[in-house]
Design a protein that fits this description.
Helix content: 25-40%
Number of strands: 4
Number of helices: 2
Number of domains: 1
Strand order of the largest sheet: 1-4
């Protein structure tokens, strides 16, 4: 059985902003674990309600 980990950037969080990576360092460490990593494609400026609805949909698809 695989164990999954979903990374969700916080409010205003982007996967990358210029050369800055949101999960810099974290991803490298987690890739060495047996976890299956997932990245939520967040809308960083959407309302909390919208982001929560999208997260629920993202999880339901998986």
């Amino acid at each position: 059985m695989n164990r999954h980990l979903l990374l969700v950037p916080g409010f205003g969080g982007f996967d990358a902003l210029g050369t800055m990576r949101y999960y810099e360092g974290v991803t490298r460490v987690l890739e060495r674990t047996p976890l299956v990593l997932h990245y939520f494609p967040n809308l960083p400026t959407a309302s909390v309600r919208t982001r929560a609805e999208q997260l629920l949909s993202f999880l339901a698809e998986r």
